[in-house]
């Protein structure tokens, strides 16, 4: 069924009147082009999420208001009405006629869908009978697909036959193989609903009967109760119980009053004890403060006296005191010397006095016995 365009060389056999073509190039045309366009659009819309199950709305179990979008006075519309009357005749239907074939069909379908969506129906059905791919091509319109995606009302499509798939089918909440199939998958059967109601009715009657029987048995037992036979006993019991509660309440009230008096006594006693304790603590704090001040002063005086003694002792051992009596500090090459043999002739000495310094050159060295020492 694929249409192609062939390019090549023509050969004519004049004797037999035959015409041949030797093809050197061939590409799709007609239906092939449409299939290629359809596939590209499917991939685009699928990538945008228009086919995802997450956005598909559940169909109502019992649609009482149905909007039908299809061609007016068509066999498909007649078939849908007949099937609907067989299955679910109590539904109210509203027809939104639209052109379902040709180049101008998609805008009319979109307009009908928007009008039907604003009418707050329980369900919308978009249908069309069978035809060629060209006849059904308006249902592959991108604008129509986006309009179906934006609907607030659940929608079922029944377009063409079982083998026919359009973009509208992929976007719709549910797809049926034919227009009558759309009626079948979106509506219950009235007889089945009636049977189910009868089952619920029977079950409800059984439950109600059982409850009534249980209540009757309970009432029969209550009638045999002495309280039921003589209601004054119930009143006497209630009065007795009320008197008991009154006495208990009075006792509780007196108990609270006693507790309140004791609490006030405890508060007074606690306040007095707290005041006495504060006074005692204040006296002890003052006494401790005086004792601490006295001890600090004694400790301070002792430490001052010890410091002064150490200063006197340090001053007595001070090198400056010794040097003031005529002694000096002699250094040879920044090293303090204590004996004559620690220096040699020619050494430069630094002599520190109590006041000032002298720099001298060694010209002679003697030992303890006055014997002169010579360097070798």
Return the structural class.
alpha/beta
Q: In which order are the strands of the major sheet placed?
A: 4-3-5-6-7
What is the 3D form? flat
Name the poorly predicted regions: none
Structure description:
The termini are far apart. The protein is of the alpha/beta class and 376 residues long. The radius of gyration is 61 Å and the shape is flat. 52% of the residues lie in helices and 18% in strands. The strands form four sheets. The chain has a five-stranded parallel sheet with strand order 4-3-5-6-7. A four-stranded antiparallel sheet has the order 9-8-10-11, with no helix packed on it. The model has no long low-confidence stretch (mean pLDDT 88). Strand 1 and strand 2 form a beta hairpin. The longest helix is centred in the C-terminal third of the chain and has 86 residues, at 231-316.
